[in-house]
Amino acid sequence: MEKKTPFSLSALPFLYLYAPVVLFLLTWIHLYWSIPVVILLLVTAVKMVRTDCSISIQNPFKIKNIGYIVLFLLCLGWCCAAGVGGFVSQSGDWIKHNLLFENLVELNWPVRYEIGESKGVLAY
User: H helices within the chain, ranges in order?
Assistant: First the structure.
């Protein structure tokens, strides 16, 4: 016997996805355009939640454990080749970014600098 998902639980993803769209439409677009679109979105969401859209999907890609190990090693190699971990050098632009990230992590916020008589804050 198949369990039915409660209406409130199946509606949560739609609420999560539609809330920012509805908020944008109602606050940034003229109401004579946004209200009909919001109503259409809500009607569509309610119809989608009420219909049973469950389908059986067969996974065409059957990856064995060795496949996961090879995939992990490829990702690890890619990251190391990109300079993650400091094993190889990164592109020149990342020197500045790494210094900024280090200051943001290790220093108190707002990050303040004092160079001689000059004082300033990190404004990225």
Answer: 7-28, 31-50, 65-81, 93-106
Q: What's at 99, amino acid-wise?
A: L
Can you tell me the distance from the alpha carbon of 110 to that of 122, in angstroms, rounded to the nearest whole number?
7
pLDDT of residue 98: 79
pLDDT of residue 68: 85
Give the pLDDT score at 61: 72
Tell whether the torsion through CA atoms of 120, 122, 123 and 124 is positive or negative.
positive
What's the pLDDT score for residue 103? 82
pLDDT the model gives residue 54: 63
* Residue that is written with structure tokens 């190391």 in the block: 80
CA–CA gap between residue 104 and residue 52 (Å, rounded): 49
Q: Does residue 60 have a cis peptide bond before it, meaning omega lies within 30 degrees of 0?
A: no
Residue 13 token pair: 């993803």
